[in-house]
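quick one, 407 residues, struct below
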Amino acid sequence: MKFNEFNFNETLLEGLDAMGYEKATPIQEQAIPAILANKDLIACAQTGTGKTAAYLLPILHKIAEQQSSHIDTLIIAPTRELAIQIDQQVEAFAYFTNTSSIAVYGGGDGMAWEQQKKAITKGVDIIIATPGRLISMLGSNTADLSKLKHLVLDEADRMLDMGFSDDILRIISYLPKNRQTVLFSATMPPKIRMLANKILVNPEQINIAISKPAEGILQQAYVVYDNQKLPLLKQILKQGDYKSVIIFASTKESAKKLEIDLRQAGVQIKSFHSDLEQNVREEIMRQFKNRQLQVLIGTDILSRGIDVDGISLVINYDTPNDPEDYIHRVGRTARAESTGTAITFINEKDQKKFFDIESLIGNEIPKLTLPEALGTSPAYEPERKRNTFDKPKGKKPFHKAKRPNNA
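---
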């Protein structure tokens, strides 16, 4: 389905045409008509499917048609990075319209707070905010949301994981009951269903490829000892022709150390973590988007807080703790129907975690043979480890599983 079939406002279509947008993705085909019809919506879609445009475009159309003089839309996002990126997409899509927007988030200095307050007080169509900073503004009567028409919760599952459930309900207490509410989530656990039942009215429901990495991702893994991780990583980066790479580590301390180690090896890299000032984080992201920085390393804050096309390689230096986090990490590549590679390092203690990932996605991920210079790898025996952990005391150990030929 092409975007001109949605009968969008001409100025919005002009912006889409300038950006080269022609054909809608599946989530856009299903969500846009529902939002245009003013229905509440709960949508589950994997990362990289075009979900941001799925809710922005119909809302921008309605704003362009109605030309209201009050805050029309509130978008709540879990992280400042995602809030900034949504704001950037609003600016791009609405380039030829008169729609105004502001990203509201903490972590900056007093000047940033004053700039955000001033923009909201003077009048803005769309606010994209993180929960904490928005509550502060509502408490100081900075933002009047009494005439709000649209509420969007983006990455709702992530917000609940971060403990924002009470904050979201508190924010909603400031909003008019007669509004349209749209909830987007990459996963749909019971707690999301409970939240949806509280804040949505007879919602339409959409499910797009739940808990499955995009088809364009080449998924691979290495079974390693911990001391093999760094030399393997260096070899992959040295030998592969990758223009843009994201490396995920389990902690910010690990990310900082990896940055030092890889810089000493001549890799153009920077780490991205919560200890950095907001202006530094924004500059790093700008360099990465503009291909001035080849490799970015960080924690799971990047898995849902970055929207950059053309990432050719994602490396899980540490196996993610949650199978759903794996989906979000590898989803940074192969976006918008492109292709990419995702490689995961699995040490002995993380084999059970990786087995859970394979179980979730319903596929066994190929285990590659280590380069000969790095020595032999551990056997991949997740079931044995699972049984060893769970077996009752006093019983004999389970028999050792047969080692795969390619481990």
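The domain at 3-208 is CATH 3.40.50.300 (Rossmann fold).
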